Amino acid sequence: MSNLYKQSFKQNYTENVSLSIFNCGIQRCEGGYTWGPGIRDHYLIHMILKGKGSYCVSGKEYTLKQGDLFLAKPNQLITYTADQNDPWEYAWVGFNGACANRLVSQLPFWENAPVHHCANFDKVSFELLQIFENRGSSSVNETAMIGHLYLFIAHLTQEALAQNPRNNTSSAQYVHGAIKFIQFNYFHDISIDDIAKAVGVSRSHLYRVFMSNVGQSPIDYLTSYRISEACSLLKNSQLSIAEIAVSVGFFDQFYFSRVFKKAKGIPPSKYLASLESSST
């Protein structure tokens, strides 16, 4: 079985501004190879390059072949198994970040159908494999990997729109506009009313379309985006915690520390200390 292989890459830190790659890889499996049942703490997409296998999620099993993709969401109990006679070879990418939920909502996966057969195998597989080809921890590697992840997502989003043009609804446009407003104004003292007014909807309607398209409320998204930015500044700048708090829209350092601890499990001072100790 010398033709079997597994090559993977995992990032040490995945606290990027909007989208971060957690891991990526390619693997040729032996017959019957199984992962799970288990859960992931990030989004994970596999693409079958050759062979066959099955994917089980939410009590339903899907049989997959070359050109198929399957999605695993955070904290979803999943199992996937290579076919005994024609085991699959696949590539994968795991990712998270402040914009991950919104981007996944635009992909051709639905709650009752977490699998998709790719209409343009060559383009989609190329971008997925390029993520792995550009693996590394340098800023050049990270930028290239994220760039190819966006292109991978763009191709799949295009396929989703081709399948269901109605998916590009006004509610999705409101969410997209709101997220752009947040990304350009998160460092100001903005409120949900400000965001709703900027995109031309009521506060209650903004809440509904956010929950439907993103899976979290506008205030939770704003907070997670600010914390993600704070993590990036803690890692990549020499600013004090008080300066970082103001830079991401928190004008009370103690409130910032409470929100940060709730989101990350530790206060920003300990988070910064963990970054410094890992670099020595």
Describe the structure in your own words.
The chain folds into 2 domains: 5-165, Sandwich (Jelly Rolls), CATH 2.60.120; 170-278, Homeodomain-like (Arc Repressor Mutant, subunit A, Orthogonal Bundle), CATH 1.10.10.60. The protein has 10 helices and 10 strands. The chain has helices at 100-105, 121-133, 139-163, 170-185, 192-199, 203-213, 218-236, 241-247, 253-264, 268-278, and strands spanning 5-10, 20-28, 34-38, 43-50, 53-57, 60-64, 68-72, 78-82, 89-96, 115-117. The protein has a 6-stranded antiparallel β-sheet with strand order 1-2-9-4-7-10. Helix 2 (121-133) packs antiparallel against helix 3 (139-163), helix 4 packs across helix 5 and helix 4 (170-185) packs across helix 6 (203-213).
List the helices and strands and how they pair.
Elements: E1 5-10, E2 20-28, E3 34-38, E4 43-50, E5 53-57, E6 60-64, E7 68-72, E8 78-82, E9 89-96, H1 100-105, E10 115-117, H2 121-133, H3 139-163, H4 170-185, H5 192-199, H6 203-213, H7 218-236, H8 241-247, H9 253-264, H10 268-278
Antiparallel strand pairs: 1-2, 2-9, 3-8, 4-7, 4-9, 5-6, 5-8, 7-10
Helix pairs in contact: 2-3, 4-5, 4-6
Concise summary:
It contains ten helices and ten strands.
Look at the structure and give the mean pLDDT.
Answer: 88
So what's the overall shape?
globular
When the domains are counted, the total is 2
Biggest β-sheet: strands ordered side by side in the sheet: 1-2-9-4-7-10
Q: How many DSSP-defined strands?
A: 10
